Amino acid sequence: MTEPATDAVNAAMEAEFRLLDPVVRSSPDLLARLLHPDYEEFGTSGRLWDRESIVSALRAGGAPSPRPITTSRMRGVQLAAGVVHLTFDTESGGHRAHRSSIWRLTGGDWLLYFHQGTRFAETGAPSPLAAQ
Fold first, then answer.
1. Domain 7-61+69-131, CATH among 3.30.450.40, 3.30.70.20, 3.90.550.10, 3.10.450.50
2. Which SS3 state, helix, strand or coil, does residue 35 take?
3. What is the pTM of this model?
4. φ and ψ at residue 59, rounded to 5 degrees
5. Which of 6, 8, 19, 51 lies at a CB distance of 3.0 to 4.6 Å from 39, suitable for a disulfide?
């Protein structure tokens, strides 16, 4: 059974969509504004990231320009006051990933606290996310 979206879930989704914007993803300052100070990520490459390493990589330059990202099946649940868990799928440049994000309300702003991306290949079988 799908729970109705709350104001907190909607706010976290709006923040996630801002984060997925290529303009935000290519700007160290804009990106940093959406990441919690204790942010961690398990990337689709298997690399472990934290807030400092992602912002530093963008500041160093040489990073490829972010590609547009298509998002599908986004849904969320409020886990506790000020904590929202989002799950969704993305496609960018032929790469597909299941994604999971935890957003925390911090100082009046929704900040990404944790993220994990897991690549998948379309097999014709429905995504487990679609059945939930």
1. 3.10.450.50
2. strand
3. 0.84
4. -65, -30
5. 51
